[in-house]
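Hey, I was hoping to borrow your eyes for a little while. I've been puzzling over a protein and I'd love to understand its fold better. The fold is given in discrete form, as structure tokens running alongside the sequence. I'd be grateful if you could look everything over and explain what you see. No rush at all, and the record is pasted right below.
>
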Amino acid sequence: MSEHFTLRQVRSHMLAPAVRHMAFERTDGAPLRFIPGQFIQIHFDDGGRALKRSYSVGTFHGDPGNPEGLVEIAVSYVEGGAATRLLSGLDVGGEIAASGPYGRFCLHDADTNGRYLLIATGTGVTPYRAMRPLLEQQIAERDLEVVLLFGARNPGEVLYGDEFRALADRLPGFRFMPCLSREGSALPHADERRGYVQAALAELSPDPARDIAYLCGNPNMVDACFEALKGHGLPIPHIRREKYVSPPDPRRAAAG
């Protein structure tokens, strides 16, 4: 059940040139009870306008870098964006109003598939970070395979890449495939691909008999992969989607 609460920023750091990882605590001391894959909403006033923005929760149980269980999100900076103005100027100790959790972009207990295809661009990878403990548990319990395809323009935009690569190196059954559309790594891993995620998806030969796919991120990528997966025969209930869209700034539109 969703609720309203106040968050206080504890720390933050840049994940990429235009993406910040932010960690918050609830001022009431209560934990945020959420299902991995859900999101929170930030509520704020901008020039007399009441606005809200949605951010997937990236916190995962057992994270050695977050023993306090802080509420973690990844924030893309949008030029002229109202939320960017708010969050980029928020100092440690600064407070914001929030509510949640919301959403159904979650793993299903009833799934009996043999493989998950997790596909993301940009901050769309955040919910998969939160799913890590559940995925590890399912890999151990039912011989599940998980492939994470992450589309970015260059190595510097592969969010949480070190974490996912370490997980893939440690955990048989989990594979991490960054797909770089503009610039590759100087020493690319064998699972790195050049180009868009759609091309790498075809390489994996999606199988309607064993695959369930999750798509999160840029709407164009989500739509393209959705059509590709349908073309491989996956039924629509086995293609679960969440699109990330940056709302336009009304003040810029009015000036337009």
Notes: The two ends are 40 Å apart (CA to CA).
